[in-house]
Write a structure and sequence with these properties.
Layout lengths: L1 H57 L3 E2 L3 E5 L2 E4 L2 E3 L8 E11 L1 H7 L3 E14 L21 E15 L3 E12 L4 E10 L3 E10 L5 E11 L16 E13 L2 E15 L4 E10 L3 E11 L2 E10 L9 E8 L4
Parallel strand pairs: 6-7
Antiparallel strand pairs: 1-4, 2-3, 3-5, 4-5, 5-6, 7-8, 8-9, 9-10, 10-11, 11-12, 12-13, 13-14, 14-15, 15-16, 16-17
Length: 327
Amino acid sequence: REFSMGVKGRYLKLMRWGVAGTFAFATAGVLVVTSDRLIGDLLDRYRPRLERKFSKQLGRPISIGTYEGLSPWGLSFGYTKLLSGFKDQSYANIAGLKIQFAPIATLVKRRPVAILTLSSAEINLERNKEGSYFVLGPSEGTKPPNIELQFRLIDSSKASIKPANIELTAKGKVFFDFQKNKVGGKIQLGFPNKGNLFLSGNGYLNEIEFQTKVRLKKFGLDFFQGVLPPGSTLNPEGYVDGDLEVGVQQGKVNCDGGISFSNLKIGEGALSSEEVSIKCSEDFIQVPSTEWKYGPWIAKVRAEVPLNGSNKLDLRLISSAELETNN
């Protein structure tokens, strides 16, 4: 009998816990649904005000997508658009936008860290008459916001650059620290039939101090023909590969790695070389002996440039030239 009563007591206790748990989950569900609706109503009410504020800062009208509900530590929005700017014709369409706050990073850095995740973005950059692609709104002269923004591209976003008619894909993440005027991140750019460009690093917007890594794989130099200033006669052609790390810290330049050019042509082919290598170490940039052609002339050039330890440019150049003859 005592055993039976003990089992019955434990059963009743489990029943009470089960009822309490069910009630707690139901209450949480009601709170989430209620909060979700309240947030949606607030965003609908303040959407025009938010769009006006962001439009002024970004220098172009913005249309924030419809609210699609709560997500872990953030909010989700639907189709969002950055329309053509007041001083440029660039615009962007974003299929999905998620805004979150990183709780651990916020506690460590003692300021809000917001994460903006972009899904399937399409970015169109068009150069204006002044040569700018994206003109921000006028500065209000106020103190920069005490917040760090992180942008993530979870899908390969597409971008086009006009008038060069360049198409590329981009994925990665970038951060902006407005208080320190600091920017950084990692991004991969893919150019159809023109190779890939990988960038990572960080630096400051208000001073020459940065550290970055560049990796190039069969990167086509004709990409620059579309982004160089109008009237430029450089018109580079060829391909470049390599890994390079370069930076400036407290006025001192550091460099490591190297890049190599193949079938290089500059100035509509007037100056050309089948292969050019550039290597750099902590103290020097070196160009091994390389054969160049300029019209009927052939020249071999070797150069070395020290990076630090001198206030003057100390270029060590060894060259020889001869006239190409046809036998």
